[in-house]
Amino acid sequence: MDWQDGFALKFFGAMRCCRAAWPHLQARRGAIVNIVGIGGRTANADFTIGGAVNAALLNFTKALADRGTHDGVRVNAINPGSIATERLQIRLRNLAAEQQIDEAAAAQRMAQALGVTRFGTPDEIARVVAFLASAQASYCHGAIVDVDGGQTRTL
User: Fold this and answer.
1) What's the whole-model pTM score?
2) Rounded to whole angstroms, how far apart are CA atoms 110 and 123?
């Protein structure tokens, strides 16, 4: 059931949204920016379902970009890394409790373990979305942009 839930929420949700918006985007020569996640590019045993869902969404993004070339719709994706959201705060609180340290020390340890100097902010992701959706990025098509502070070390 976890696998079905994982795909139903993120992959099929994005697919349905793209399908519903496509005619409108085609009419206006619009753009799609899928928010995916770095787990789709680097496998991790602790993120098996999420990684598989993200990899499928990255593939879907590339396939839509192929179709968008003919239909006039630009399609790109962003792979956020560890972003300072409520979800991350919960993880940090749990880590702090497990290791009996304060949350600031837990954040520093987690960032160091991930190979980044700090966590990103939602605003940083929003600015990349705004860019990819704008006319300034009119030649960005089928791009997958890692916004992760350097955490992803794949080619």
Assistant:
1) 0.92
2) 21
- Coil, strand or helix at 85: coil
CB 31 within 8 A of CB 76: yes
Q: Do 58 and 16 form a contact (C-beta atoms < 8 A)?
A: no
Which amino acid appears at position 95 of this protein?
L
* Residue-by-residue DSSP string for 1-61: -HHHHHIIIIIHHHHHHHHHHHHHHHHHT-EEEEE--GGGTS--GGGHHHHHHHHHHHHHH
Q: Is residue 29 a contact partner of residue 142, using CB atoms and an 8 Å limit?
A: no
Q: What is the rounded CA–CA span in Å between residue 52 and residue 38?
A: 11
The yes-or-no verdict on residue 20 having pLDDT over 90 is yes
